[in-house]
Amino acid sequence: MGERKVIQQYFAPDFDPSKVPRRKRARFNRQESRIMLPFSLQCSTCGEFMYQGKKFNAIKEDIDGEDGRYLGIQRYRFIFKCSMCSSHISFVTDPKNTDYAMEYGAKRNFEHWKVADEVREAEVKKKEEEEKGDAMKALENRTLDSKLELEILDGLETIQAMNRRSELANARVDTQAILDKIDRQTRRQEEEKKEEVELADEDEELLRSMVFRRRAIDPAAEEEAPSTGLGSAKASAMPPPNLPSRVRVKIVKKSQRPQKEKKKEKKKEKKAQAEEEKGPPETKAAAPEPAAEQDKSASVGSLLGYSDSSSDESD
Question: What is the number of other CB atoms lying within 10 angstroms of the CB of residue 146?
Fold first, then answer.
């Protein structure tokens, strides 16, 4: 283990490196290696497709001559066999474009990104050639580039602002608070419904507790209220109308008004008699209200032919 890790090695005092025999190197520095295809290709002999990442046992060798180096960087050739027909296929490294180039035996498949890069490079070269002899053209291109950069920066700023806004909104949102609010609203609605049902039940009980009777309408009331059309003899023979519960309660309350007016009149009469007995200076007694005004204050229930049981007993 110690010798494998080269932590410590011993050299004898009489060691002479010149006496160590030189190892013979193969031509073009050939080496066997396990490779993976850097691109997809099609064999030109059998038409077999081999895709990127497929593993092969290949021979790696150096390229000699003028094409062997690019700016001092060594180029290499890889030779392997087709997986279907066993014909030789070779590709080489391309340090200029940081890529690989097909040499023989197969054809490289179409790659759209490579075409886009080539078009971009051609546009850059064309622009450089235009700017070489024309200073105004170079200035125009620089202004256009600066405008484009500013537009890109504005777009980036807007996107960043939107992202910050969305992050703040997501941070402020409290799902538990939203759920609690929804629960409160549903409870309030249920309580309102219960109250409405209770009020309807109370109205029904109140109506059931009241007793309605039909009675004949006086002919004097018929003569005094001809415009209503309710005081005719036919009205007594008509069936009672189907009125809603709220209207019925109001009719009952209005039917109790004549009793209160009668009590007030009796009180006024008693006061007038007491003053006459005492013998104060002559004072004009309060004139009783005319019968027309009393008839005008008649309730809608009396005109319809309904009256409360309590009012009939008092009469």
Answer: 10
Which distant-in-sequence residues (6+ apart) come within 8 Å of 56 by Cβ?
Answer: 34, 35, 36, 37, 80, 81, 83
What pLDDT, on a 0 to 100 scale, did the predictor assign at position 57? 92
Among candidate residues 295, 200, 285, 305, the one with its CA nearest the CA of residue 257: 295
Closest CA to 90 of 121, 136, 56, 47: 56
Where do the H-state alpha helices sit in the chain?
2-5, 112-133, 135-172, 175-209, 219-224, 233-237, 245-255, 257-278, 291-296, 300-304, 309-314
Say how many CA atoms lie within 13 Å of 55 toward its Cβ: 2
Nearest-angstrom CA–CA distance, 214 and 219? 16
State both tokens at 228: 């209503």
* Residue count of the chain: 315
Q: What is the pTM of this model?
A: 0.39
Q: According to the model, what pLDDT value does residue 235 have?
A: 43
In this structure, what token pair is assigned to residue 109? 């498949």
In angstroms, the CA 150 to CA 243 distance is: 77
pLDDT tens-digit series, residues 232-257: 444 444 455 555 555 455 555 555 56
Going by DSSP bridges, is the β-strand pair 76-81/31-36 parallel, antiparallel, or unpaired?
unpaired
Residues β-bridged to residue 56: 35
Res 24 pLDDT > 90: no
Which of 110, 56, 108 shows the shortest CA–CA distance to 82?
A: 56
What DSSP assignment string belongs to 82-139?
-TTT--EEEEEEETTTTEEEEEESEEEPP-HHHHHHHHHHHHHHHHHHHHHH-HHHHH
